[in-house]
Amino acid sequence: MVTISLCMIVRNEEEVLARCLDSVHDLVDEIVIVDTGSTDQTKEIAGRYTDRIFDYEWTDHFADARNYSFSFATKDYVMWLDADDYFRDKDREKLKKLKEELDQEVDSVVMEYHLAFDDCGNPLAMSRRNRIVKRSRQFRWHNPIHEYLFVEGNCYLTDIAVSHGRVHENTGRNLRILEQIAEREGEVTGRDVFYYANELSDAGRFAEAAEQYQRFLAEPVDYFEDNLTACARLSACYHQLGLFDLKLTALLQSMVYELPRADFCCSIGQCFLERDDFAKAIYWFKLALTQDRPPDHHFGVLHLISWTWLPHLQLCICYGMTGELELAYEHNEKALSYLPNDANLLQNKAKIEQALGIGGAETP
């Protein structure tokens, strides 16, 4: 059986750190906590789980802090988590089994990262991360913010999921760091342009964000998943700015980088639905239903509802608006197969059944 060091960087995480460590402490052989300047009870909470707690003077460089945490690992493999991450019970069992069976020729274990959930606990959005890496390979983190772990060699793809339960709101820290880089170097460059655009968008500075997304999309493609996300977020900026034709153009640009995907099909369909152009909206929502989810090696963010209930709900709306109630009912039923207790879908069902004279409604 392999051994695993869990390495984390933390700061003022008293609200979530215990949840994280409760979910994993008995599945790893060592816990390394690097504190970057907590002023709450974070270090005291960490002390319940490990005595390997180290201080790090914060330098606005996440990769340096993560590399520092990795430097204290002593086991075969190194796993990283953020304090607001945790493992659900089913994923704990999978991780336990993985640890027992992992081939030591594996250099990196890729896990799913579930970013948001519906009321039933089903993931709404996910990406993937190199989550456990062989210590002897000495893989390094790169980038001051939105840091990434550069990995080569034998990667093992799993369906084990780390769940993200964010508590802290956007503090503007990342935007501040990027603006300091822009001031020092004249402008941000490369992949940082994409991250800068994201931070501007999150701060509600949509016109500036749109300009940076355009800069990023004008450059050669390094990671096509970033380009897809840039198209989606650029369209959202144009929506906020009331530039609806440009919103549609940004979504269509995604097909420069990838074949039509269900999430983009749904977004394009929504553009036409907002214009009451139901024929075109129906076309795109139906196209979404024909698309397979991207393969497991895809690391970008996937909005999973576009491959499940969302296109059915939107088709229900479209067909309801065009008076095709049988088709509206059919697609509402399909959406209900994913969300059987959803109040809006159940209300749709009752209204359509009443209009059609079926179900609970009395018939002559």
From TrEMBL:
Transport as UniProt keyword: no
Keywords, comma-separated and alphabetical: Transferase
Entry-linked SMART domains: TPR (SM00028)
UniProt-recorded Gene Ontology molecular function terms: transferase activity
Any Pfam family hit: Glycos_transf_2
Glycosyltransferase 2-like domain span: 5-144
Record-linked PANTHER family: GLYCOSYLTRANSFERASE (PTHR43630:SF2), POLY-BETA-1,6-N-ACETYL-D-GLUCOSAMINE SYNTHASE (PTHR43630)
Protein name: Glycosyltransferase involved in cell wall biosynthesis
Organism annotation: Cohnella phaseoli
Taxonomy of the source species: Bacteria, Bacillati, Bacillota, Bacilli, Bacillales
